[in-house]
Specification:
It contains 8 helices and no strands. About 80% of the residues lie in helices and about 0% in strands. It has helices at about 1-15, 20-40, 50-60, 60-85, 95-125, 130-160, 165-195, 205-240. The relative contact order is 0.09.
Length: about 250
């Protein structure tokens, strides 16, 4: 049904022809994009996909966030593996990390984010002054983000094969500042945008999308660096035949 409505919307917009933007200018572009958006989301009525999601977010907030975060985390890992050309021993991009990342997103990331964002919104509820908005951004970057990123790095180290405290600590120490740098650049922009243009009930899907894009970039970048390090390690092992005892166990990775 949705595909039929989408086609009908396109036909009504273009009258069977490609849209002519040269005559209508920006207004025609806006109308055309608006019609496409309504066709995809079924408009803003009660039957719209976005409204249905927001309704579930209000009635079952934690469950909805867990399902969303789990799905996006697994998809993020799969997409990052494809971007970095990181295959498992069978040559597939669907590695054992995909379900592990999905479990992390559903069981760790979502409950943690739900609690921290709820506290943040509770503390600044009803405060709309410029000072309050700035304080909310500072609290998000100096309190919420460090907690989330630390848990993220610990989880990623364990998923990657770290089994000792030394290995986990080394991963956190190496990745904390780079990850926080990305957060400090993107988080204020995203939060300021949400404060200005979005109702609070839509913050969760908005930040999920932002986190998905940023997480995919960081994950793919990390994979590329890891693959380069492994190639260097194999080259060195080929010369001396040695192997460090504290290397992560990557069997079945």
């Amino acid at each position: 049904m949705s595909s039929v409505r989408f086609k009908e919307s396109i036909q009504q917009t273009t009258n069977g022809q490609a849209p002519d933007f040269s005559k209508g200018g920006n207004q025609q572009r806006h109308d055309y994009a608006h019609r496409i958006g309504e066709a995809v989301t079924k408009g803003e009525g009660a039957g719209g996909y976005l409204q249905a999601y927001l309704k579930q977010l209000q009635s079952n907030p934690l469950r909805t966030k867990m399902l969303t975060s789990g799905t996006l985390s697994g998809l993020q890992e799969l997409l990052a593996s494809w971007i970095a050309q990181d295959r498992n021993k069978n040559g597939h991009y669907f590695t054992s990390r995909v379900p592990k990342m999905a479990a992390y997103g559903a069981l760790i990331s979502a409950p943690l984010g739900h609690f921290l964002i709820s506290v943040l919104q509770f503390v600044f509820a009803g405060r709309t002054s410029l000072k309050a908005k700035i304080m909310q951004i500072l609290a998000s970057n100096l309190i919420v983000a460090p907690i989330q990123n630390s848990i993220y790095l610990v989880s990623m180290a364990i998923i990657a094969g770290a089994r000792t405290f030394h290995q986990v600590r080394a991963t956190v120490r190496a990745g904390f500042i780079p990850v926080m740098r990305v957060s400090w650049i993107t988080s204020p922009i995203a939060l300021a945008f949400a404060q200005q243009f979005l109702p609070q009930e839509t913050w969760v899907p908005f930040f999920n999308i932002v986190a998905f894009v940023i997480g995919t970039y960081i994950n793919a970048h990390t994979k590329k660096k890891r693959l380069a390090a492994l190639r260097k390690k194999r080259y060195e092992e080929g010369r001396d035949g040695g192997q460090r005892a504290d290397d992560y166990d990557r069997r079945g990775y």
